[in-house]
Design brief:
The complex is a heterotrimer. By secondary structure, chain A is mainly alpha-helical. Chain A has 35 helices and 10 strands. The radius of gyration of chain A is 32 Å and the shape is globular. The relative contact order of chain C is 0.13. In chain C, about 75% of the residues lie in helices and about 0% in strands. The chains are: A mainly alpha, B mainly alpha, C mainly alpha.
Chain lengths: ~800, ~180, ~100
Amino acid sequence: MLDFLLAVPGRLYVVATLLPLLAFTLLLLTGLMRRLSVGTPLHRILGGEQPRLLGALIVLAAMASSATIGVTNLQRFLADPAHATHDDAGLAARWSERMDWFRLGSLDTDPPPVFEKQRQENPHRKVPRTALALELGYRIDHLSAVLFAMVTVVGTLIVMFSIGYMKDERNAAVEDHEVEKQTPTVHHFHRRGRFGRFFLFLSLFCFSMLNLLIADNLFQIFVSWELVGLCSFFLIGFYYERPSASYAANKAFIMNRIGDAGFLVAIMIAWTSLGTLNIEEMKHRLRSPAADSHGKLDLAEQFVRVNLEDPIVDDSVKRYSLPAVDAEPGTHLALFPLAWEEADHFHGLGYKRSQDHGFEVPDVLTFTSYGAMPYWLFVAMGLGLFLGCVGKSAQMPLHTWLPDAMEGPTPVSALIHAATMVAAGVYLVGRCFALFAPEVLLVIAYTGAVTMFVAATIALVMTDIKRVLAYSTVSQLGLMMLALGVGGWVAGLLHLLTHAFFKALLFLGAGSVIHGCHHEQDLRKMGGLAKKMRTTALTMLVGVLAIAGTPFFSGWYSKDLVLQAALGFGLTHPQHIALIILPLLTAAMTAFYMFRLWFLAFAGAPRDHHVRDHAHESPLIMTLPLVILAAFSIGVAWGWPLWEVDHSLLAHALNHSAPSFLPTVYAHEYETAHHYHLAVGGAALLAAALGFGLAAIKYWKPRRAMVLGDIKPGTPANFLAKKWYFDELYDAVVLKPTVAIARFAGAFDKRPTEGTLAARRYDAATLDGWLNGLGDATLSAGRSLRRLQTGRLRSYILVLALTTAAMLAILTVLKT
Amino acid sequence: MTLSHALFAILASVTAISALGVVLSGSIVRAAVWLLFTLLGVSMLYFLLGAEFLGAAQLIVYVGGTLVLVIFGIMLTAQGPFSSLKTRPMEWVVGGALGAVLFALLVNAVWPIPDLQPGGAGTLPGTGPLGMGFLGIANNGAVAYLLPFEIVSVHLLVVLIGAAYLARAKRHQRTEGEA
Amino acid sequence: MTDLGLTPFLVLASFLFVCGVVCIATKRNAIGILMGVELVLNAANLNFVAFARFGPPSFRLEGQVFALMVIVLAAAEAAVALAIILNFYNNHSTVDVDRADELRG
């Protein structure tokens, strides 16, 4: 068994992914058995009326094992000798595998139509043989290895934290005051504790997230995508008797679904135009190869846009040509052969024209390519993929679900809505970076920038500790998207990693505060907690410093790189200057509202005596993860020398799996960025210091009235507090018309006591009438036919004899 | 008109008229008697054709066995006014029409069949060869019929056991609670 | 036996057959139906023996054997039929086949 696993070291990753699934299955089965075994001794063993701790410990053990495997395999992966020799084949053999999960047709079946036309032109050309196939596979590169380690470690720490945080759910009866507050008809609401359920869904979530990370094709990613959305739904709606929680869960799932529609469209386009869903293969089809049989190409790994030639000579054979140098870019995107195409049939730009058919290009040689796809379709595919990420990573306009998702328990917010699930969108953009057209990248950058800015402004005025952090998450995700959109691939993903650690830390710290203040979440009622909750206060300070971009904390490295990338892009393309200004402003705002949070919660004098009297530090099981995460938040992005941002070890690791065309495509931007990198660092520090200073002035020793006072309507502060009226906008533009349409459609099926008469009569005359008529006709036909069955022997015999006579007569007639 | 012709004419008429009598008679007992005469006529026809054993077998088994069984059946199922089981006139019409049509078709099919031994080839094999054939001893190239013989014997046994079981006296199940 | 041919016998057999079929189709008494069946079987037997006499030489023994088989089987079938009729009579107190319409659709 161990030999099997070690033969391909990548398989250990699969094992690490499946361990949480195993925990999930165990918990599910025991939960089911508990329900079925009421009244037997087994019922009490499995938890009976009071949930047991064992389930959580099983999940913790599974996650810890996964984390161990993740970390040790990361080390093994980094030490793999194939990296030094650039032995891609060897690397792929040891760290990736694919299998057909579902295949219609064999490998010898005809290829998709895209390839068929070219094959008709030149029958000798080797055509990739594909069939309708859905695959399961994994591919480990630096990005996924590092992220895997991060997700498992953070997951383990959060599971550990939850065991302490959700202790109340281990009681046989839990009283939920929120339900009574929100539903006036319910008094003294009691329910059984739901400890096991929490860990059930948490383990399922971990499994799906890990599967998403190691998957190598869009289909598998999509399945995991939906699964994490589902787990998020369950966990946000954990306290489902509260109407607010159940609405929030619905909202999250539905908004995710809107994004997923885009994702599906992208998958469909990829399937029909490219014939594959494997990300590596898609990349090879869309971008020109790195080298041809004569050596490295000048235009390696670029998008090649071509024009369809007029007139179309033969309907089955289309010819394409490269546009002239300063003409409009082509309307189609050329699709390339796979890596295993025979080299001697391929030529690149710069050589003399060959006898080969294919692309009729003046003066330059033809490509042995396999057709082209319309460029707008390619852009649509990229946009569809990005729409999925918009939904999942809560970018504008699909961002409103994330703050509402804070209805779930705080560890859920930490894991799902800070460190991992929302990071899945950014991860996908990073993974599929090679598949995006430049237009799409620009859209990504602007979406990220706008989201970042708007969310930061809203966070300035939020009073709920979790909501501040939620909007902060939205804002930071926007920053990551911005980084990716302007070509800062390493920067964006490094920020993803560091953000995961310090955001998880901040959320868990908030959870500790909430737990210590007996479920008080309002910042206005806190104050001076640093005295009573030392560890929490200190670790949260670390997190706040990290997010603000304090030098030598992990956030500084990633933020600096992001700002450098943005600067490089903005200066190279002066029309996009907003892409530099917005992040700088946001950096200032981030520092401001994060320090505001810290000061309001921990500094100054307590504002609510009830909270002050009962506040206490959380137990070790909750503070230990805080300390560990604080350590990570400081040191995870360190390198040597410490003050050189570019020398960060993590950035180096990520650089290995960066798309190889980045240096060529963004050469000018990187150069500009490097030239001005000191200026950027200084500007960022200035912004952070500005934010800190303003926050200190306002909130270190704030006036009571200022903090506790209500925001006056009509002021800018109120506009921000109402979250830029996004919810109201969606309500009016989307919800009300949908409900109206639904009501109209429903009118056709209402019973006689409800609904309009006209609609029912119409329905009765058409659809209902036809269907009922069909049924009636069948019944009456049956009734008529029944009369043949008299049951009387004599009539049967008569008919028999008559039939025989008839047959004889026919035979007689036929013979003559 | 030879003797055989005359005999055939008489016997055929007897048989045909008796068959018609079976169909047309209203009372079941009368029908049984008409059937008796039909079977007798057929037996005589066998004798005329030269199949003596068969004629004798017909008399013994059919007339002496089957018909007696039928009459027993009539007796056992006799209930008062069983002669009221009359067929309606409409059914006579349909039945008659059916009969006519069928008869026409059959005669039409039968008429062209030629004699394959014009004038007759003498007598049919007698009881001796028949019996030997049944015992499985083939003489002069004749085929043996031991297997059909055995099959039919077993068949008879099975059928009689079955019939005896079917017709056994059953306890009345009308009144419940009886032991 | 010079001029007597096959055809008269076959015509007579057809007539008997038709009488049997009409008897089955029209009689209401179950035993009447049984009588019809006997008529049909007799007609077939007559056919066999006529062909044995006037047909191909190889059929001379076979025809009689067939006819004998038919007689035996007819007797067996009559026994079973009567057993069924007796059962029917026990259940319905009548032998009117029109009463046996429990399979009516």
